[in-house]
Amino acid sequence: MGEFDILDGLGVPIISAVVYFLMNFLKVRLYIDNPTKKAVFMKSIPSYSALIGAVLGIICFYLASDIIPVDNVIWAAIIGGVSGSAATGVFESFKNKIKAPKKVEPETEEPKE
Containing domain of residue 80, as a range? Predict the structure, then answer.
């Protein structure tokens, strides 16, 4: 068995957290005055999250190779991209939990006379 290092695999939650907070910051600060541009940005958040995660994975591969234990930069980019996509999923799950579900009242038919 190989030696277990506490830093192995720590890159996934770090990249997810960084991407999550960065995307929320951009949503608040970017295109706040133009609703059309904001709507386009909101639809492309998953793509931006994966791209930023891939870039962060590559940066971690070269600067902090202990937290992403892979052999080449392609796997680092893949792990980073998946981590960035996971940040989008975390955001959506929190958003769905925070929003109260709308209760739909069943329509009652009035009796015909």
Answer: 11-93
Q: What amino acid is encoded at 83 in this protein? A: S
Asked whether residue 104 is assigned to any structural domain, the reply reads: no
Cα–Cα distance for residue pair 100/54, rounded to 1 Å: 34
Q: Which CA distances in Å does 76 have to 13, 55, 86, 102? A: 14, 9, 15, 42
User: How would residue 42 be classed by pLDDT, with cut points 50, 70 and 90?
Assistant: confident
Q: Of 27-31, 48-52, 63-67, 101-105, which one has max mean pLDDT?
A: 48-52
Residue 113 lies in a domain: no
User: Is position 100 within any domain?
Assistant: no
Q: Both tokens of residue 102?
A: 């709308």
Report phi then psi at 36, rounded to 5.
-70, -45
